[in-house]
Amino acid sequence: MNRRIFGNEFYRGAAGPLAMAMLVSLVAVLFVQPWWAGSWNDLAVVVRSGQIFTWPLVATAGAWAASRENRRGTEELLATLPRPSWQPFLVSWAALVLGAVLGIATAWGIAAMFVFPIATGSGTDWIAALLVCVPAHGAAAAFGMALGRLVRWRLIVLLTPALALLVYTAASWASWMSGYDALFTILLSAQVSTGSMYAVPSSALQAMWFAAIAASFLVLAVSRRRWLVLVPAALVAALTLLIASVPLNRHVVTDPVAMQEVCTTRGPTICVARYEEHVLGELAELGQPMLEKLHGIPGAPEELRFGSSANPDLPVYLHNTTVTGRLADPVQEREWLANMLVGTVPTCDGEPFYRVYQAAQSRLLENGRSLDREWMTAYFAARADCDTDATLALLN
């Protein structure tokens, strides 16, 4: 590929504006909901999930680039020359893909500056999952360019975002109907559980799947023998079946390093998975004073532990953070911790039990007053036995 031709296409075509649009849209996605702060894996997940916004952008840029060549009559002009007519088309496609990748890389780099200072141990599978963005957006550019080249209607560019979004989501809809919802969730967004720090090791298959889709649209757009599209299309079908045959626990696995248990070293014990270690200090400030109030009360919890490799059956600690990894709403988090501490006994049905549960939470949250240990002891005893009479007595 001639570098000068590629450079002209990149700097004078849609690639530059596309890179800026990708950057702005992804930064907005990342910083509106910064739950990824502190985790490389979660950052990769958000970038992949952001494809629902960036895929239509790339497709629209591709439709505009192809429509521009139609208006210029480039295909008819090249038909009179010995140079293959598909070369400018592929140059334009490659420039768009590079523009999209640069936009994604820049947005990721901005977010990475916030992750790096506080990120704790994790594996490297997230790198492969992130790199799938390249063939994924290559497929988007190919779809848009095929649409712009084959549909000679100027308004097609305006309709491309909606059509691209429809194509992007149709796979998920079809998978729900066929029972393969997990397959396309993985393929299209690498959506994983933020609480379990899942990694996606099947990235090579995903990359080939998107590359085959890109090849299908490119062949459809430039080949004079349209039947040749059956070759990459058959590859898409084969890869879809191959990926669907792989069990979900082979696609998505827990990151063992990130799920190691980390606990406080002073005061009452509070433990989280290693990937949440950056909020452990704040959790200790919020939870340890309440644990100290409950210390020695029969039936009351003596520690707080969340899901990790040591305690896989416990609920994971989910929270909202700022971009610096700090708890976004410490007051709300403290209330949630109080809920856990007074609700760690069997739940009893009935309004009285719910009312006394709220009263226990309020007493535990009160600052500047010692806890009524006699009342709290009776509370835990009544909850443990689901004693309605004892519960009603606590409310009087």
Distance between the termini: 84 Å
Order of helices and strands: HHHHHHHHHHEHHHEEEHEHHHH
Q: Which structural category do the helix and sheet elements fall into?
A: mainly alpha
- Overall radius of gyration: 28 Å
Give the biggest sheet. 3 strands, mixed
Largest sheet strand order: 3-4-5
User: How many DSSP H or I helices?
Assistant: 18
Number of strands: 5
Helicity range? 55-70%
Proportion of residues in β-strands: under 5%
Low-confidence stretches: 76-81, 174-180
Shape: elongated
Average pLDDT taken over every residue:
83
Protein model, in words:
By secondary structure, the protein is mostly helical. It has 18 helices and five strands. The strands form two sheets. It has a three-stranded mixed β-sheet with strand order 3-4-5, with helices on one face. It has a two-stranded antiparallel ribbon with strand order 1-2. The chain is elongated.
